[in-house]
Design goal:
alpha/beta; eight-stranded parallel β-barrel; seven-stranded mixed sheet; binds flavin-adenine dinucleotide
């Protein structure tokens, strides 16, 4: 009777390193004799690597020649990443010049005898010699054409890149790869073919990848020969290539659509009895991957086949749990599985993601020795589970290999794996010493364009200081050092995490704690959160009453009264109250999430980011305020006198906030004004009164006196009454430029003191994408920037300029990716786009869409469900000579009001590379300057754009929304706002008055201090 199927995989996502270290160090022990044998084997392998004189050269030789710690190495990496995808000569020339100018390729003396390295170095040197640093592209091209011809330089550099790339892929097509593999077959190598490419962004991409896998399986199968498994070739597939939304929040859809596809491919592999391995990807996709794998693997049509497999990453803290899960699965189904153990390829990405998400800890280890230790522990576990599991140890580390050899016993019941172009010397030596042990080569197949991205990842991974390949390539590192055991390097459990890598929560220490986030890819956490939100929804507050003008006046009067006491409350105490508010927000997160979803129409991701931003504002201003408003600043001056500059509140400050960030912007304004010592009259948007009321209640609960903070609800008329009030000491406003102007005029028209206006207004935010950009990255960033939050962010992308040489492909991918977004109820975790704020907003947007459909080329016209939903739209405008009128006119004029289109509508314009200057001039001419995106690999271009445009927030090669408090202080120039930036170091002082106190300390009887100090 087989065991029951295991429950879905759900162990703790990011447990504490020290606890794991205790277990691993204990398990890692070998006897003294065994350790001595490991030393001997590893030494022999390392000596073989060092003695290697491969006439072609592999990654190791490339690293020896162009280390990533050198300028040449880095320039080469960027060049390799992008050059082959640049279609136009002009951009290619600019790019080549930019990168070759960054390193000293001319005087680079080749150390290697490897052909590949030499040829690359030579081609780069020749190219660099013709390009003199400091020349303008035009000048260079001119000179080149005369001397050598730009096409020749371009060709030489491209050839160098191709040469590098071709060495690390087995073939551009599966047929070519098979032919090359067959020529090695005599050496007894096994292969696993990998079809290169980035993950699918569109449904078309996914079906293309499916077809390419299916065709490859057919071709591999036909050429597979007669040996039984495991001695048969295989294929590795990436789930992210087979589905455009391979993400935890789209779980149901992924299970419905992807599982049948995976079963289909697996059946084809079964027909030829191949090894079929599902690659391991990012940590947040692990649970989802295992659900998909389990569902496919359990399909009865796959019974009786032992080739199905998956990869497990030892750098993940959940690796042993994955082995337990797979073991349980195979026992329940009474099947066998092949399991590839790797260390993991996305380490840097994992760290960044965990930090951005504010997770309690990392899902991966932060010390390499812990990964190595875990690798051995996992290897032991896998070896013990033979023959149900067939272990495949993928590593290029001689010590890891030697340790496994010591643990493994029966040599036919496992295999080693390596990447094509790597570990050749190591496995050649092993093949000589232990011919009975098999090894399989993971062989990438694909076009030159795709392979370079792959190569770059390999170079990056292996160029790291801690990488075994890099250390083994460095003769200065002794073999004794290479043989140091991971357990010894860790020493004790307290050393298990990297001292230089703070936990995500400590990222901003000592200034403040980071706000806590959750990983949506962890089902336990997500489930707990959604149940808490559902429970909170039941207790959501009712409607909030609108204030009258009299009540508004009364609030100002009351605030004036409350001001004195609050202003004289010590800054440390005010800060403590804000810190308390942050803690309360964290405790009552579910309550605010429910409100943000209910009243603000926010998706779970958006709502979570907003609560986190609100928490960050409280803590950031508290930390900053303590410094600024604590002790006064002593100024220099003559003896006998003390001079101190102090900051204080101004009085009753009016804070008027918008509906699009009803918690974060609301609290950001209010807490800044409070921290500076002001009493505050807060007027939220009339669309989101309940969130504001709850936020104010929370601040009062945290300790802000009732007299210091007053809430006034209502529409623009109430706001106008507050602004007009003669007794207010300042206004902080976020909203449209029109309303900001009107506030400014009202303030200016009043007699009495001139008070400050801090206004953050809108923008016509543009992104510029040139031909060196990576389409997949652009698609992700454009979709996020233009459509997330239904485009209702001030920072959202409205106008995309794409270089015409790549525009067709880029626009198609962006539109295809946008088509995959789910529009609907924001309370459903799988929703990507919720409603727009109200019927009026929808009406305005619909009218704009209708007009655009007449005037522009439609690339995407999504369909929205009934209600206040607006689907993503993409319109292409023609870039006529009068760019401003043609392009910016339609975007800014809705119903004859100069107003931004505040919704999920993207406008695209193509530009010719030589017209970039016109594009910049046109953006500048709008007068707005809030956010700007640039996607380019050419540093010169990036600099040119940054120098030219006065824009508040510029984002290079990433999306352009989601500014983080204290990290990307936010706010624009020109028509986009007055500054200072919210969440930045200069914000609080604008809410303050300054006072200098000068005391003549010598007045009573002379300068005693001076006299006492003189000899
Ligand atoms: C056949 C094959 C298939 C592969 N398939 C996959 C796959 O499906 N999914 C995948 O993710 N990778 C895959 N890889 C890539 C693999 O993860 C790396 O090549 C491997 O990690 C390199 O390990 P090593 O033992 O050769 O080198 P080593 O130099 O011993 O180890 C390097 C690895 O250590 C880890 N590391 C580095 N620094 C730290 C640190 N500070 N803290 C914690 N860990 C650290 C990283 O995982 C890094 O890659 C595959 C590799 C091979 C050979």
């Amino acid at each position: 009777m087989p065991d029951p199927l295991p429950p879905p995989f759900s162990p703790p996502y990011a447990p504490d390193d020290a606890t794991i270290a205790g277990r691993l160090r204990h398990d890692a022990r070998l006897g003294a004799e065994a350790e001595a044998r490991v030393d001997r084997t590893a030494t022999r392998l390392i000596e073989a690597i060092r003695a290697n004189d491969d006439p072609l050269g592999g990654v190791e030789d490339m690293l020896r020649e162009f280390a990533l710690s050198t300028k040449e190495g880095l320039a080469l990496m960027v060049l390799a990443e992008a050059l082959l995808r640049v279609p136009d000569a002009r951009t290619a020339d600019q790019f080549i010049e930019d990168k070759l100018g960054q390193g000293d390729f001319v005087n680079h003396e080749t150390k290697s005898s490897a052909f590949l390295v030499n040829a690359s170095a030579w081609a780069l040197g020749v190219s660099a010699r013709v390009i003199q640093p400091g020349e303008t592209p035009q000048g260079t091209i001119g000179r080149l054409t005369k001397r050598l011809g730009a096409p020749a330089v371009r060709a030489a550099t491209r050839q160098a890149m191709r040469l590098m790339g071709s060495h690390f892929v087995l073939g551009e097509t599966i047929e070519a790869a098979l032919a090359r593999a067959q020529s090695h077959a005599s050496r007894g190598s096994r292969y696993s073919f990998d079809m290169l490419g980035e993950g699918a962004r569109t449904a078309d991409d996914a079906s293309r990848y499916f077809e390419s896998y299916a065709r490859a399986i057919e071709a591999i199968g036909k050429a597979a020969g007669n040996h039984p498994l495991p001695d048969r070739p295989g294929i590795s597939v990436k789930l992210s290539a087979l589905h455009p939304r391979f993400e935890a929040v789209s779980h149901a859809r992924v299970m419905n659509e992807l599982v049948p596809q995976l079963i289909d491919l697996a059946r084809r592999a079964k027909a030829y009895d191949l090894n079929f391995t599902v690659d391991a990807e990012e940590a947040d996709r692990l649970e989802l991957s295992l659900d998909v794998i389990a569902a496919a693997f359990a399909d009865p049509s796959l019974a009786g086949w032992n080739g199905f497999g998956l990869a497990i990453q030892a750098y993940q803290k959940r690796a042993t749990a994955v082995i337990d899960y797979v073991d349980a699965l195979t026992r329940a189904l009474d099947r066998r599985m092949m399991v590839r153990l790797v260390k993991g390829a996305y380490w840097d990405t994992e760290l960044k993601r965990a930090q951005e998400r504010g997770l309690p800890d990392y899902p991966v280890f932060t010390r390499k020795a812990m990964t190595d230790l875990n690798y051995v522990a996992c290897a032991r576990k896998l070896l013990a589970l033979r023959p149900r599991l067939f272990p495949q140890f993928a590593t290029h580390n001689a010590l890891t290999v030697a340790t496994i050899l010591e643990l493994s016993g029966d040599p036919t019941s496992f295999e080693f794996q390596r990447l094509h172009g790597m570990g050749e010397a190591l496995y050649a030596q092993l093949g000589q010493d232990r011919p009975e042990i098999a090894h399989r080569t993971y062989a990438p197949v694909g076009s030159h364009r795709d392979l370079l991205a792959y190569l770059v990842r390999r170079l990056l991974e292996n160029g790291a200081n801690s990488s075994f390949v890099a250390l083994a390539a460095d003769n200065r590192v002794s073999i004794t050092d290479l043989l140091r055991r991971p357990a010894e390097i860790i020493g004790h459990d307290g050393n298990a995490s990297h001292a230089g890598i703070p936990l995500p929560v400590d990222l901003y220490r000592p200034q403040r704690a980071n706000s806590h986030g959750i990983e949506l890819g962890e089902r336990a956490g997500l489930r707990a959160l959604t149940s808490a939100i559902a429970a909170a929804r039941k207790t959501a507050p009712g409607t909030a009453a609108t204030s009258t003008t009299e009540q508004a006046d009364a609030a100002v009067a009351a605030a004036r009264q409350g001001f004195r006491a609050w202003n004289s409350t010590p800054a440390a105490q005010r800060a403590a109250i804000l810190d308390k508010a942050a803690d309360l927000l964290e405790q009552r997160r579910a309550h605010f999430l429910a409100l943000l979803q209910g009243e603000g129409g926010k998706t779970i991701d958006d709502a979570l980011s907003e609560v986190r931003e609100a928490i960050d504002f409280c803590r950031y201003y508290a930390a900053l305020g303590q410094k600024l408003f604590g002790k006064g600043e002593t100024m220099p001056g003559p003896t006998g006198e003390s001079n101190v500059l102090e900051l204080h509140g101004r009085g009753a400050f009016v804070a008027i906030s918008p509906w699009n960030f009803p918690l974060a912007i609301f609290l950001g304004q209010v807490t800044a004004a409070l921290m500076a010592g002001n009493a505050v009259i807060a007027k939220p948007a009339e669309q989101t009164p309940r969130i504001a009321a709850e936020a104010v209640a929370l601040l009062h609960q945290a300790g802000v006196p009732q007299t210091a903070l007053h809430l006034v609800q209502g529409d623009g008329a109430v706001g106008a009454a507050l602004v007009k009030h003669p007794a207010i000491a300042g206004v902080v406003f976020t909203g449209s430029t029109e309303v900001a102007r009107s506030i400014n005029r009202t303030l200016a028209a009043k007699d009495g003191p001139i008070v400050p206006l801090i206004a953050e207004t809108g923008g016509i935010n543009a992104m510029i994408v040139d031909a060196t950009a990576l389409p997949e990255q652009v698609a992700d960033d454009v979709v996020t920037s233009a459509f997330r939050s239904a485009g209702q962010r001030c920072s959202a992308l409205r106008l995309l300029f794409v270089q015409d040489d790549v525009a067709d492909r880029m626009i198609e991918m962006i539109a295809g990716a946008a088509r995959e977004l789910k529009i609907g109820d924001p309370a459903d975790v799988s929703t990507h786009i919720g409603p727009v704020i109200d019927a009026e907003a929808k009406q305005r947007l619909d009218a704009h869409i209708a007009r655009m459909k007449q005037q522009a080329r439609v690339h995407l016209a999504g369909e929205a469900p009934a209600g206040t939903f607006v689907a993503p739209h993409i319109f292409e405008l023609s870039a006529a000579s009068e760019l401003r009128e043609e392009v910016f006119g339609p975007i800014m004029c809705i119903r004859d009001r100069r107003e931004e289109v505040f919704g999920p509508i993207l406008h695209v314009v193509r530009y010719r590379a030589e017209r970039l200057g016109d594009v910049l001039a046109a953006i500048e001419a709008t007068g707005f300057g809030l956010t700007l995106g640039i996607h380019s690999r050419i540093d010169d271009t990036i600099e040119q754009v940054i120098d030219r445009l006065q824009v508040g927030n510029i984002y290079v090669n990433r999306n352009m929304i989601g500014a983080v408090v204290g990290v990307q202080p936010f706010g624009g120039h020109g028509l986009s706002g007055t500054g200072p930036k919210a969440g930045g170091p200069h914000y609080l002082t604008r809410f303050a008055t300054e006072q200098t106190i000068t005391i003549n300390t010598a007045a009573a009887g002379g300068n005693a201090a001076l006299m006492a100090g003189v000899e």
